[in-house]
């Protein structure tokens, strides 16, 4: 990675670490929540909806990983991921509490 | 990361590609070989000949099981098909006694149901299993590791495409003998030529173990994953033996019934529950070579009368998609032409990963502060590249040589064939660590070339099925295997020769272009 003279090497490292954490563990949690919601929302039989959501998960994970390294601001990246995670997690919790599972 | 999108994607491509690149190289190489796993197994058991009829072979297998395991809970029979010449049988003993070694409850049979007297080997099956189970470590760890590597691959492919703006223009450029540019071109050509294949194979590879990597889609709808699997794979309920002995009806007739139901497609797999009892049932699954989907339809018949009991219901769109994706990955449906195309695409993928790994060092060498004394990370990558690329080649050739050279009646022979592969691989790794960097590529590549070249000769000395005899007899399987070994030897030899060229024959430096700076990021 081309380091700009204006930026210290330490800052670059933190930047990469924050993006890597976002791109791998946080991404996995977010993708899991998103496809869990999808599995509950898709208008299909439950086993079909589960499989369709699972198939989609790898594409979602890969694209989110790219986004984590493509966006300019790490802070906004994390804010967006945490926000989306809370929203999806809350929705999933509500859906399971009210609808139950098989 | 204040640079543009392409710079950040180039950085991502570089590091996702490198970090698990060595594992990906091994996965690509063994997965490519696994497209010919049945053929490799046949080459590794030269004693086995003939083209048995699947129906006759299945009836023979039933006779074998009736004498060997009459009280088993279940029998599983995989009859021969157009590619394999043997019947595989496996049985689940009655009672809950702890499972012994798989060797005690399985056998390989010939077309008449006799245990075959061939050398003990894991054949092409080992390469297939290594592709996703690796070796010497618990299968579950291996599968997570392989899954992580596959996801890195997917990200590397996507970021590579974004990085490479002129992807199709550059595709027509292959500049030989120009140092870094040649490596870049080789990487681009093999990547772009088979890009749809690489994307398909990486994605469908993840799908083969999807519920392991991403169980949350199922967990969202099912409190226990078992209820999901019960819904999807409607296993016939396990029924207690009645104790009333009734002989099994002929399976040949059952196979013909199933074939008729599937418009002539063959039977790929039979499972017999409670054989020899009044409660016996037989489940038949369609042969994988007759359709893309990996989970063919099933038909369940009464084991004593052959009466039809149950047929699998057709799957929904999502499950059907999953089945086709897995089928596309495994390529079991592929005829000869398509199978070779799969193989060549896999070779392209292997070269893509290998050239990408080499490119990492080639690009950085010129920019090292002191090229004579590179830093630790550079040296490590350089040595691991040798071990991963030339070492695996030497290991695979050694695996085939061990198959011909180990004593036929040796204890744990099949295991030692596998150990030979890793001993050779480890030897190259150690060699790569101790030798001077300039020499090590040449020596390791030349060693791999020599070992591959030795395979047809050792085969000719140890079996009657040599290259000329194979050609004369029209035995294309053996002829093609020997020919591929010689081609691999030529490929590694050519690479060794290239590596031996002095470095001064580098391309004259041109003014850097936009694509160069990006590629060097």
List the SSEs and their pairings.
The complex is a heterodimer of chains A (102) and B (521).
Chain A: H1 9-41, H2 46-70, H3 74-99
Helix pairs in contact in A: 1-2, 1-3
Chain B: H1 5-19, H2 21-34, H3 37-44, H4 54-68, E1 74-78, E2 87-92, E3 106-109, H5 123-133, H6 139-163, H7 167-171, H8 180-193, H9 195-208, H10 210-213, H11 216-219, H12 225-232, H13 251-261, E4 267-273, E5 281-286, E6 298-302, E7 308-311, H14 317-330, H15 336-365, H16 376-405, H17 413-434, H18 437-462, H19 467-473, H20 476-500, H21 514-519
Question: Can you put this structure into words, describing what you see?
Answer:
With 102 residues, chain A is mainly alpha-helical. Chain A has one domain. In chain A, 82% of the residues lie in helices and 0% in strands. Chain A has helices at residues 9-41, 46-70, 74-99. In chain A, helix 1 (9-41) packs antiparallel against helix 2 (46-70) and helix 1 (9-41) packs parallel to helix 3. Chain A is elongated and about 50 Å long. Mean pLDDT of chain A is 91; it is low at 1-7. With 521 residues, chain B is α+β, with helices and mostly antiparallel strands. Chain B folds into two domains: 12-45 and 125-208 and 330-519, no CATH class; 50-116 and 235-312, no CATH class. Chain B has helices spanning 5-19, 21-34, 37-44, 54-68, 123-133, 139-163, 167-171, 180-193, 195-208, 210-213, 216-219, 225-232, 251-261, 317-330, 336-365, 376-405, 413-434, 437-462, 467-473, 476-500, 514-519; strands at 74-78, 87-92, 106-109, 267-273, 281-286, 298-302, 308-311. Chain B has a seven-stranded antiparallel beta sheet, covered by helices on one side. In chain B, a hairpin with an 8-residue loop joins strand 1 and strand 2. In chain B, helix 1 (5-19) runs antiparallel to helix 6, helix 9 (195-208) packs across helix 14 (317-330) and helix 16 packs parallel to helix 18 (437-462). Chain B is globular and about 85 Å long. Mean pLDDT of chain B is 89; it is low at 504-521.
């Amino acid at each position: 990675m081309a380091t700009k003279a204006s930026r210290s090497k330490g800052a670059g490292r933190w930047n990469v670490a924050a993006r890597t954490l976002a791109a791998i563990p946080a991404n996995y949690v977010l993708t899991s929540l998103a496809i869990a919601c999808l599995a509950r929302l898709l208008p299909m039989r439950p086993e079909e909806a589960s499989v369709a959501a699972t198939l989609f998960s790898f594409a979602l994970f890969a694209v989110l990983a790219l986004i984590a390294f493509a966006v300019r601001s790490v802070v906004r990246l994390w804010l967006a991921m945490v926000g989306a995670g809370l929203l999806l997690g809350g929705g999933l919790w509500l859906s399971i509490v009210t609808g139950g599972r098989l | 990361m204040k640079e543009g999108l392409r710079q950040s994607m180039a950085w991502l491509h570089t590091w996702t590609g490198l970090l698990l690149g060595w594992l990906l190289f091994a996965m690509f190489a063994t997965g490519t070989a696994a497209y010919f796993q049945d053929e490799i197994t046949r080459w590794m058991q030269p004693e086995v000949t003939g083209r048995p009829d699947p129906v006759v072979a299945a009836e023979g297998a039933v006779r074998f099981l009736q004498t060997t395991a009459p009280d088993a809970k279940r029998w599983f029979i995989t009859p021969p098909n157009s590619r394999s010449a043997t019947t595989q049988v496996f049985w689940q003993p009655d009672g809950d006694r702890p499972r012994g070694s798989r060797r005690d409850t399985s056998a390989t049979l010939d077309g008449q149901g006799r245990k075959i007297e061939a050398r003990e080997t894991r054949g092409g099956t080992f390469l297939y299993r290594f592709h996703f189970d690796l070796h010497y470590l618990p299968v579950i760890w291996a599968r997570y590791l392989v899954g992580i590597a596959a996801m890195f691959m997917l990200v590397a492919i996507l970021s590579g495409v974004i990085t490479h703006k002129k992807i199709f223009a550059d595709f027509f450029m292959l500049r030989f003998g120009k140092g870094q540019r040649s490596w870049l071109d080789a990487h681009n050509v093999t990547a772009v030529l088979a890009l749809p294949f690489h994307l398909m194979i990486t994605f469908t590879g993840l799908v083969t173990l999807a519920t392991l990597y991403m169980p949350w889609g199922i967990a969202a709808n099912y409190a226990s994953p078992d209820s999901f699997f019960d819904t999807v794979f409607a296993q016939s309920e396990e029924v207690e033996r009645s104790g009333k002995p009734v002989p099994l009806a002929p399976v040949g007739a059952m196979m013909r019934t199933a074939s008729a139901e599937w418009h002539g497609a063959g039977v790929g797999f039979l499972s017999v529950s409670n054989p020899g009892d009044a409660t016996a049932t037989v489940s038949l699954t369609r042969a994988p070579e007759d359709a893309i989907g990996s989970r063919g339809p099933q038909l369940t018949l009464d084991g004593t009368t052959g009466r039809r009991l149950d047929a699998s219901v057709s799957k929904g769109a999502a499950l059907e998609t999953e089945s086709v994706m897995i089928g596309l990955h495994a390529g079991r449906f592929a005829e000869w032409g398509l199978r070779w195309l799969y193989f060549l695409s896999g070779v392209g993928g292997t070269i893509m990963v290998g050239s990408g790994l080499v490119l990492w060092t080639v690009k950085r060498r010129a920019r090292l502060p002191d090229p004579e004394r590179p830093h630790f990370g550079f040296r490590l990558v350089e040595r691991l590249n040798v071990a991963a690329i030339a070492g695996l080649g030497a290991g695979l050739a050694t695996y085939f040589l061990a198959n011909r050279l180990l004593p036929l009646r040796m204890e744990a022979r099949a295991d030692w064939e596998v150990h030979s592969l890793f001993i050779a691989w480890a030897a190259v790794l150690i060699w790569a660590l101790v030798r001077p960097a300039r020499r090590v590529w040449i020596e390791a590549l030349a060693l791999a070339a020599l070992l591959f070249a030795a395979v047809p000769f050792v085969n000719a000395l140890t079996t009657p099925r040599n290259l000329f005899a194979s050609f004369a007899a029209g035995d294309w399987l053996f002829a093609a295997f020997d020919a591929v070994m010689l081609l691999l030897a030529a490929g590694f030899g050519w690479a060794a020769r290239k590596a031996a060229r002095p470095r001064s024959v580098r391309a004259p430096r041109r003014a850097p272009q936009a694509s160069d700076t990006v590629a060097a990021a």
